[in-house]
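Hi again,

Forgot to attach this to my earlier email, sorry! This is the prediction with pyridoxal-5'-phosphate bound. I've pasted everything inline since the attachment limit keeps bouncing my files.
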Amino acid sequence: MTAITNHLPTAELQRLDAAHHMHPFTHGQELRDKGARVITRAKGVWLTDSEGEEILDGMAGLWCVNLGYGREELAEVAARQMRELPFYNTFFQTTHVPAIALAARLAELAPGDLNHVFFAGSGSEANDTNIRIVRQYWAEKGKPSKKVIISRQNAYHGSTMGGASLGGMSGMHAQGGLPIADITHIDQPHWWAEGGDSDPQEFGLARARQLEEKILELGEDNVAAFIAEPVQGAGGVVIAPDSYWPEIQRICDKYEILLIADEVICGFGRTGNWFGCQTLNIRPDIMTIAKGLSSGYQPIGGSILSDEVARVIEGHEFNHGYTYSGHPVACAVALENLRILDEEGIVTRVREETGPYLKEKWEGLCDHPLVGEANIIGMMGSIVLTPDKDSRAAFAAPEGTVGLICRERCFANNLVMRHVGDRMIISPSLVISRDEIDTLIERARLSLDETYDRLK
Ligand code: PLP
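Structure tokens for the complex follow:
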């Protein structure tokens, strides 16, 4: 067989890819018809494809390459760790220095008394762990009936049976008979799409109070936890009205419901603080982490537990774990990633410098005839495409047709921007410079113009 390398023609790589490689969230026929773009190299915020095109990655891969591509330090740490101890497990009373050091560093960074880390290989696995943790917690506390986890429509918490059930994506629930038992959903705090004529703050309160209504409907003795992303990412970068989170916090406190903040996207600087719950003043009992933890250089995730939750769970053997829980190479790379984010002041820069600069430019897109509103927090933002800003109208069904045109125009203009329905979203690497932000905005505007032209 011919060696498959970057040197093969793009069409041949695409043919082999479509023939043998099954892609996540991809339609097989479309893949065969159009072929996937083959990415060969990356540096900073720039991708290079097999045709030699330079593409500005407005999504940091999948919201994860917080530190940008091509950091030699991470490659060196990985190689060193592979030579020294490529694998050992953390089951049955064994441990190793990378897992110890990363857990201790995360305990330092995480707010409040979130001091105990259970490692997983991904965000989905970590959320599966969380389901088991909260149920075990209440069982150990003598309240085994507290099992139901409340989540939100249009949330994303992963793709495993547990993660997809916690998520509120109807398209995912439709395949495979989800959600699994004892997971239920309330509405999301998405004022633009669902707020009608209401005032955004009143809408935020009403949506938060659905949590209370759901707890009362189920009976507080049956509810274990509420899970939410501080800012919904894959749902379209939905930032809740300011009234929402304080009310959610009040309700969780009042009914003793564990609060799980899914920080898989918001964590590690994306919102301008180490964690989204610091930006939004949320006090979780458990945080889910992944993605930016290693800037995507290694697959790693985890759950960070409060002193109290960990104390209860550790009262007995917890019959749970993954072969790669605390994988030494992944832990060493994550630790180095956190060191660089910290020592180069990257999180502070997002909060004080590049975040505000991007916000100003991003919100400037609102003068475009297609753009209804712009939402942005730190380095994650969305714009809504609408045929009529005043009435907040949606384009004629099927939803997402215009978003898809815009995404394809972005791609043609060498900018990666994703669409969620008719919302366009960005989540660039935290190291993006002002000049690169200018380029991102120029290409976004050009793509919006071309989309607008196509609708005429
Ligand atoms: N939670 C959130 C908020 C996410 O955005 C994602 C992935 O996008 C996940 C969980 C799942 O993480 P993973 O894809 O690493 O399993």
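The first strand starts at residue 39 and ends at 43. The two ends are 50 Å apart (CA to CA).

That should be everything now.

G.
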